[in-house]
Design goal:
The complex is a heterodimer. By secondary structure, chain A is α+β, with helices and mostly antiparallel strands. Chain A has 2 domains: 2-67; 84-113 and 177-379, Thrombin, subunit H. In chain A, 40% of the residues lie in helices and 22% in strands. Chain A contains 8 helices and 15 strands. Chain A has helices spanning 2-14, 20-32, 34-73, 81-119, 151-170, 195-198, 331-343, 363-371, and strands at 127-128, 132-133, 178-186, 190-193, 204-207, 213-222, 227-232, 246-247, 257-262, 269-277, 287-291, 302-305, 309-318, 324-329, 374-379. In chain A, the strands form 2 sheets. In chain A, strands 9-10-11-14-13-12 form a 6-stranded antiparallel barrel. Chain A has a 6-stranded antiparallel β-barrel with strand order 3-4-7-6-5-15. Chain B has helices at residues 3-15, 19-38, 44-64, 73-91, 109-130, 136-145, 150-157, 162-187. Chain B is globular. The longest helix of chain B has 26 residues, at 162-187. Chain B is built from 8 helices and no strands. Chain B has 2 domains: 3-106, Rna Polymerase Sigma Factor, Chain: A, CATH 1.10.1740; 131-187. Chain B is mainly α. In chain B, helix 1 (3-15) packs across helix 3 (44-64) and helix 3 packs across helix 4. Classes of the chains: A alpha+beta, B mainly alpha.
Chain lengths: 380, 188
Amino acid sequence: MEDIQLLEAVERYIRGEMKPDERVHFEQLRKTNAEVDQLVVEHTLFIHQMNEVGELRKFISTLNEVHTDLAEKGSINSDKLKGKAKLVYLWKRYKRVATIAATIAGITTITISLLVWSVTPKTEDAVTKLNRKLETQNRKLETQQIHTTNLSKAVNSLTEKVKEIDDKNESPVINYTTGGTGFLIDPKGFLVTNTHVIENARNIAVERPDGKEFRAEVVYIDKARDIAILKITDKKFKSPGAIPYSISKSAVALAAPVFTLGYPGSKVVYGEGYLSSESGYNGDSTSCQVTMTASKGNSGSPILNKNGEVIGVVNGRQSNVNTFVFATHAKYIYSAVEELKKKDTIYHRIKMPSVSTIRTAEREQQVKKIEEFVYIVKVN
Amino acid sequence: MNPDHKEQELLKGLATGDKKAIETIYKDNYNMVQSLVINNNGSAQEAKDIFQEAMIVLLEKARSGNFELNCLIKTYVYSVSRRIWLKRLQQYNRYTNEVDGMLGTVPVEEDVEDYERRDQEFAMMEKAIGSLGEPCKSLIEAFYIQRRNMQDIANQFGYTNADNAKNQKYKCLMRLKKLFFAQYKNGK
């Protein structure tokens, strides 16, 4: 035990955290005790080395980020870039056509999905859906009392009122009611969330961590695996750049440490845990079980391994134990996108991130990067 | 801004970890180093590695504060990359004609040797950390690299209190130091 205290003192001494009188005392001890002196010398070297490692790791991860950024922008002639640059070019060229086609396809999908839903009987299961109720606000239409004493005035105000309503129809204010989490799988605005989050939605919006909200629509639903793909349709939306995490195709080993980011409230929440079972609720092999604390609203959150690879999507929580989370295997995101591609050629341009650029980064750095690509999903 | 002043600003930015400065230096020099490596029997991946190593040497130079601008950043990066690549080719026993020079070079032997020494020490520590195993590795990294406080670490790793985490960290530290210093003393 004494060794621990001595080492602690040495560390405080090296870091300059000692008070002046304590320091004098310690220096005296150093002079008289060769062993202590030896420990200080050795530990100073060690701490210095650790600091170097920390700084170098940080610098290398910055260099890699910069490399990816510049290659993407075409500012450097990196090999990888050619394919991507071409894609960006083609995308810019055919953006209009693609957007129109995506809109039509989206509307068709929703219509078909709604029809399917209306004939599918609802089943109750023991898995509580992690829907979060947002505060409901009722829109009130103000009725204006018009005095008829001045006829022309009344007509004027009526005209204004009509104009106002017209304006409202152009960009309606929608009050969203329930929500979950979603994350980008393609920076062009494709997100993955849970089917049950967007079930029966009339309008869908996603909110970025900075509070910006974008209209989105459902382009694909896999109800059995509780996976849905959303496309941001808002013109305001600009690609946020390369996605730092990758989507993993392979299974994860039991006990592997994992983490998640989600929106149980309006602020993003980080959670850590480990893979506790390779199958999900009632032996369901399409999902796995993760032991971590999850809150309502975590539905649709990505589950990542230590390398920053998405290995699953949170889909529900056993009602009586709230430290288990069930997650759909990430490989089904690939299946969903493959199915989506079969539906329409415009989806052929979806390209999922297959390499994590944050493999070697510190967890804080990983989370900071990932956070920008995890959105709140709101429905109405 | 005159060119000299601009270069000074870039180096200052690099030393203080300003991403914009790093980006500018990267953008202005990468293609040059890439063609150097590729034209001399190297691959694109090797070019990236060599360039990043040269960036580390430049960082060290900028941090030491005595980077006398007797040459441009471009010349320096080129000279360092060329030197490291030549050495690497020799190590791999790969044949090359004399590396062609599209730019003049400045003497950088000492800087490159300093870098190699540091890089070796760095590799020793990484190797030692790597052979620690979990949870020691994460525990040590959280305390010494991410500099997080013990209470925080205790919460994350599920220790009942900071003292327990401290004890565990101490045990891990002893192992790490043993691993590191064994290599370090051999290396010297």
